[in-house]
Amino acid sequence: MARLRGGAVTAVVMIFAVTGCKDLQDKGTSGAPGPASGGAAMTAADSLTVKGRAPKTGYTRARFGSAWADTDSNSCDTRSDILKRDLESVKFTDGDCKVSYGVLDPDPYSGKEVTYRRGRSLVDIDHLVALSDAWQKGAKYWDAGKRIALANDPLNLLAVGASANRGKGDGDTATWLPPNKSYRCTYVAAQVAVKKKYGLWVTAAEKAAMKKVLATCPGQKLPTGGNPTKAPSRFTAG
């Protein structure tokens, strides 16, 4: 996607530019989100279904399949795809999949430059909509193929600084926003895009928080693109 540093790769979100209310990144693995008309993020947020949070009972990471499955069949795992999409000055080990070095310039969550080195990384791959949050807002009722798709959809993934990301946990917009205020519009638009694409609901407090952020950037676009919402049948989940 256009650089989601806040949104989607070619394979998805997709990612946004790190300057406030801009589109997701320009780099991308196949399937990056495309441009949308101004104000589309607020319109999409308004359309999200509101319900209470369901119990977390039954949630495990395994319910979304093995981590970083190559669901787009490009011979690189999903984590490698996102690192290649989001980092600058990338260097590889053994071909063009395993990233050994790169720079987040800047980290969308903190606004600071963060260096990635394989094996001692200060970079996380964040699920913009946390899998536990998704589980409590509809995903527990899905089949495995859809859950695996969500976990590996570039539209829902972003390389970020580990330090800023660790405070997020499974928070939604009502409980956590990036410390980098200039990135919040992009971040919220990406969450809205993922929830709309997959039919996830939001709580009343979450929708209110989304609209409060998006009201500061009324022309905010909605990232699009990413992978299909059902993973190939060869992938299974626990």
Account of the protein in words:
The protein has 238 residues and is of the alpha+beta class. The chain is 25% helix and 11% strand. It contains 7 helices and 5 strands. Strands 1-2-3 form a 3-stranded antiparallel β-sheet, with helices on one face. The chain has a two-stranded antiparallel ribbon with strand order 4-5. Helix 1 packs across helix 6 and helix 1 runs antiparallel to helix 7. The N terminus is likely disordered.
**Helical segment count:** 7
Mean pLDDT across all amino acids: 87
State which percent range the strand residues make up. 5-15%
The succession of helices and strands, N to C, reads: HHEEEEHHEHHH
Helix content: 25-40%
* C-alpha-based Rg, rounded: 16 Å
General shape:
globular
What separation lies between the terminal Cα atoms? Answer: 30 Å
Main sheet characteristics? 3 strands, antiparallel
The counted number of beta strands is: 5
Structural class: alpha+beta
- Side by side, the strands of the main sheet go 1-2-3
Low-confidence stretches: 1-37
Short description:
By secondary structure, the protein is an alpha+beta fold. The protein has helices at 40-47, 78-86, 131-135, 144-151, 162-165, 184-198, 204-214; strands at 88-93, 98-104, 114-117, 123-127, 157-161.
